[in-house]
Design a protein that fits this description.
The protein is mainly alpha-helical. It contains 2 helices and no strands. The termini are far apart.
């Protein structure tokens, strides 16, 4: 799947899958996310990563 198809066909889900995501994948996604364009290059991004029991709350 290419990026445009992924963006156009994405949808939100009410629940997350119970299987954990490897930390290396999370770090790769966060590294890509902070590269998004931002106003005046101030990088105001804040991300919350929930793992373990926090995901159940």
């Amino acid at each position: 799947m290419d990026v445009l198809t992924a963006i156009k066909t994405r949808h939100s889900v009410g629940r997350v899958k119970p299987d954990p995501i490897p930390e290396a994948i999370i770090n790769t996604l966060l590294s890509a996310a902070v590269q998004a364009p931002n106003h005046f290059k101030v990088r105001p991004w804040q991300f919350v990563v929930l793992t373990g029991g926090s995901r159940e709350k």
